[in-house]
Amino acid sequence: MSTTRQIPVNAPMQSLKDYFLLALPHLEDPNFAGTLTYLCDHDDDGTLGVIVNRPSEMTLDGLFEQLDIESEPGPHNEVLVYDGGPTYRDRGFILHRGNASDWDSSIQIAEGLALTTSMDILQAIAQRRGPGHYLVMLGCAGWKSGQLEDELKQNSWLTVEGDAAILFDRPSEQRLSAAAGILGVDLNLMTRDAGHA
Questions:
Q1: Pairing relation of β-strands 80-83 and 134-144?
Q2: Is residue 50 within 8 Å of 82, Cβ to Cβ?
């Protein structure tokens, strides 16, 4: 069982790949207020993540129609597409269980968890041949090198190791509080200085 830890603000920065980024209540940027972001890549070049608790009004059926993808009838067509972040809003990002090697353009984030941006996975989902668990996002969140680290020092965010059960087994409106629960905190009770003890 993995250990759960908060990254100390003055420690050398380790990779936050496969971590949740929890917006603290005082974060007022409309792009991120009240969000839970899952970090898919974090290195010296910057950080890439997807917001996982902001469903849009678009369904997969609507997305398939826009992309001219033929879809098999079924409940998957009514699944909501998420607003994944303010960057590349016209691109699809699919966070899913499985292996990156199964798809044309994909990165492995953690064991059994990948992020794919190629059309083949959407076609497979439409034909009910895709991964069993997935979230489809339009757009992503990105930080240039050092930017996220600066925001962490300003107590804009909390970090905690990612948990696939929160991503795929919890309704979107419960994900932020569930991630905070891993740390044993209630975000509604936090003040501006509570980000890093």
A1: parallel
A2: yes
What is the per-residue DSSP string for the chain?
Answer: -----PPPTTSPPPP-TTEEEEEPTT---TTTTT-EEEEEEEETTEEEEEE-S-EEEEEHHHHHHHTT----SSGGGGPEEEE--SEEEEEEEEEEES-GGGSSSEEEEETTEEEE-SHHHHHHHHTT-S-SSEEEEEEEEEEETTHHHHHHHTT-EEEEE--HHHHHHS-HHHHHHHHHHHHT--GGG--GGGS--
* Residue type for position 134: Y
Reported as a single tens digit per residue, the pLDDT across 55-97 is 999 999 999 999 999 999 999 999 999 999 999 999 999 999 9
Q: Beta partners for 136?
A: 94
191: its two tokens: 């003040």
Sign of CA dihedral 118, 120, 122, 125: negative
Q: Model pTM?
A: 0.88
Is residue 72 within 8 Å of 118, Cβ to Cβ?
A: no
- Terminal alpha carbon distance of the chain: 25
Residues 6 or more apart from 124 whose CB is under 8 A from it?
130, 131
